[in-house]
Design a protein that fits this description.
By secondary structure, this protein is α+β, with helices and mostly antiparallel strands. It has two domains: 198 residues, Bactericidal permeability-increasing protein, domain 1, CATH 3.15.10; 155 residues. The protein has eight helices and 32 strands. Strand 23 and strand 24 form a beta hairpin. The longest helix has 25 residues. The N terminus is likely disordered.
């Protein structure tokens, strides 16, 4: 009998020192649907024209010749040899010069008779002369300017015209007082004007659409974000800025609108041909919104690294925090399970709303407090524990630094975008800003929506 009384007394003492609050009922509020934000991207595309210039160079003959024969007056034949074309981009078009050399053979007849044949015969011996024959050929320089624009279906359209034709070495025939230079200019210019069509034809064959299609396809392909899901930009519209030229490069700003998606499962890319050019509001770089899940394990590790074993004096009593873990959610608030020992031992629950500090890039719980059941239990069994000191300590330690996770997401996106997407086509990007658009608690993770802005460019 005595033993039984002692046992019951001991059990009563132990039970008085143990506080076990009931587990809060989990209430998950579904995150509101993410508004399908129309994102924008503007990037300068740089095209190396050197390979195309080589094709144009090959397509233009290196030598031209012609003649005009008549009985009365001056007859001539000429030959014009050109040097390699020197291409140079200037503003809205291309300027290029052709250094050449020419030779002329001339003969002169003051008067003809047509009694013998219809072609006529010179009544006196013809006078012959030449320039650049049996001596260094005479110099000439021809300059062209080509105005280039892009059509709505991403084809190049050009208009070429002769900008200058200089002949520093005159060809003056003093024996019959004839300046052949001007005549040569007219004849060679006529031939070179035919070349304008050849140049325009060669430029229209420059295929920039395929190059831009490769960038379009890259943004359509899902990118593995390693644990966060598969990101697809899903481009929708495209517009181009003014096409400009400098040296042997063409530059144009490409503007796109798209609806990015981040999905947990890999889906086949929905490749579409580039649409015709449209009007888009220009905005440098890219601006997109994504979402990802961040598990509670890392948050629990941070809290317990700070709190596990922490002793808190409450007057004459002491409690020791054994562990603090996130356990479910109530609406927009998280449940924190606190296991403690010391003068009292047991389990209590606190609730708090996760708040993101944009400057510090941390999640904290400024409104952390005991949940209703835990509060009632303390008021009935241990009023000395019903103190803000407990919530203050946990609030101070329950800080989740998102910077490493955001930096990781930033690096993964940059790694995916910075690459050679095909031979000779390089894409370069840099994510510059990451901002939190919303935080939504789930049973086992935080759903975090982020806004991303950055810069992007393409070189070909």
């Amino acid at each position: 009998m005595r033993f039984s009384l002692l046992f019951l007394l001991g059990l009563t003492v132990v039970s008085c020192k143990t506080l076990n609050a009931p587990i809060p009922e989990e209430q998950i509020d579904a995150a509101p649907p993410m508004e399908q934000k129309r994102s924008t991207l503007s990037m300068p595309v740089e095209i190396n024209l050197a390979p195309y210039f080589k094709d144009i160079e090959k397509s233009i003959p290196k030598s031209f010749s012609g003649k005009e024969e008549q009985c009365t007056g001056v007859s001539y034949s000429y030959k014009f040899n050109r040097q390699p074309i020197q291409f140079e981009g200037k503003g809205r078009g291309l300027y290029y010069e052709i250094d050449g050399k020419y030779s002329l053979k001339l003969n002169y007849c003051p008067e003809c008779t047509f009694l013998i044949n219809s072609d006529g015969n010179c009544i006196v011996p013809r006078i012959y002369a030449s320039c650049g024959v049996g001596e260094p050929m005479r110099r000439a320089k021809v300059g062209y300017f080509t105005d280039v624009e892009v059509t709505p279906d991403l084809q190049l359209k050009s208009k070429t015209s002769i900008a200058k034709f200089d002949t520093p070495d005159a060809c003056e025939i003093t024996v019959f007082k004839y300046d052949a230079t001007e005549q040569l200019r007219k004849e060679v210019t006529a031939v070179l004007k035919d070349l304008e069509k050849e140049i325009d034809k060669s430029i229209t064959e420059v295929d920039i659409k395929s190059d831009i299609q490769e960038v379009w396809d890259l943004l359509s392909n899902p990118m593995d974000m390693e644990g966060y899901g598969y990101l697809s930009f899903k481009p929708e519209k495209i517009a181009l800025g003014e096409l400009t030229f400098k040296d042997q490069k063409a530059k144009v700003n490409v503007h796109m609108s798209f609806f990015p998606e981040l999905k947990t499962t890999l889906e086949p890319a929905q490749k579409k041909p580039i649409p015709k050019l449209s009007e888009l509001k220009q905005k440098d770089g890219f601006d997109i919104q994504l979402q990802f899940l961040s598990g509670y394990d890392s948050l629990n590790q941070i809290i317990n690294r700070e709190l596990a074993g922490y002793k808190l004096n409450l007057g004459k009593n002491e409690i020791i925090f054994d562990s603090v873990i996130v356990q479910g959610a109530q609406g927009k608030k998280l449940n924190l399970k606190v296991q403690f020992s010391g003068d009292k031992k047991g389990i209590l629950y606190l609730v708090g709303t996760p708040v993101f500090d944009q400057n510090m890039q941390i999640i904290s719980f400024p409104d952390l407090e005991f949940d209703l059941e835990s509060k009632n239990l303390l008021l009935k069994s241990a009023k000395w524990m019903f103190t803000p000191k407990i919530t203050d300590v946990i609030r101070e330690k329950a800080v989740f630094d998102l910077k490493p996770h955001l930096d990781e997401a930033r690096k993964m996106l940059d790694n995916e975008l910075n690459s050679e997407i095909t031979e000779g086509v390089f894409i370069k990007a840099k994510t510059e800003k990451i901002g939190i658009a919303g935080i939504y608690p789930n049973s086992h993770s935080l759903l975090i929506r982020i806004d991303l802005t950055g810069s992007i460019s393409v070189k070909m």
